[in-house]
């Protein structure tokens, strides 16, 4: 089962995880991946990607096939699929549950995907499945969230308030 970081691959930087996910996505979409295809997918230069790919080759995650296309090793594919899975779960949570605009949800999911644990990813999957499968729960959550306004107003003090507004009310 895919979830958070469980792979046996060496720990990768956020950039390297982006490269793996982009490589997997290009291969999944096009059936093959050239360095230029992946660089275009990421919006980075060919030389920048080339340096990153060398590190992934050294770690045994990426190889070149007979046609000199980029290919993922089984470990590389597993790692790429895990990153992709975390990204999709986060993008769905941000967009479907919190109502974040699609471009912003994708951008922010891309930032968070590198640090989220397997346990948290699975909890988010459970929440997403609950909201999608239990129509009453999903409708109630969306309705309540759409019309909810917290009692305190956002201000400069919010970043230093200690979030006392999130503490449970004392019981009498």
Word description of this protein:
- With 172 residues, this protein is mainly alpha-helical.
- 59% of the residues lie in helices and 3% in strands.
- The chain has seven helices and two strands, in the order H-H-H-E-E-H-H-H-H.
- A hairpin with a 5-residue loop joins strand 1 (62-64) and strand 2 (70-72).
- The mean pLDDT is 87.
Q: Gist?
A:
The protein is mainly alpha-helical. Helices cover 59% and strands 3% of the residues.
Topology:
Blueprint: H1 14-30, H2 35-42, H3 46-58, E1 62-64, E2 70-72, H4 74-97, H5 102-112, H6 118-133, H7 135-147
Antiparallel strand pairs: 1-2
Which percent band covers the strand fraction?
under 5%
- The strand count comes to 2
Q: What is the helix/strand order? A: HHHEEHHHH
Total of helices: 7
Primary descriptors:
single chain; mainly alpha; two-stranded antiparallel ribbon; 7 helices
């Amino acid at each position: 089962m895919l979830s958070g970081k469980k792979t046996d691959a060496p720990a990768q930087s956020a950039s390297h995880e982006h490269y793996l996910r982009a490589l997997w996505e290009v291969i999944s979409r096009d059936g093959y991946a050239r360095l230029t295809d992946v660089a275009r997918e990421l919006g980075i230069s060919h030389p920048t990607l080339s340096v990153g790919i060398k590190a992934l080759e050294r770690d045994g995650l990426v190889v070149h096939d007979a046609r000199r296309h980029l290919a993922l090793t089984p470990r590389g594919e597993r790692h790429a699929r895990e990153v992709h899975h975390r990204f999709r779960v986060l993008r769905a949570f941000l967009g479907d549950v919190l109502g974040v605009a699609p471009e912003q949800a994708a951008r922010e999911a891309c930032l968070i995907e590198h640090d989220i644990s397997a346990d948290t990813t699975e909890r988010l999957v459970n929440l997403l499945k609950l909201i999608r499968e239990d129509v009453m729960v999903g409708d109630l959550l969306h309705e309540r969230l759409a019309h909810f306004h917290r009692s305190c107003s956002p201000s400069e003090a919010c970043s230093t308030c200690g979030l006392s507004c999130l503490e449970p009310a004392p019981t009498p």
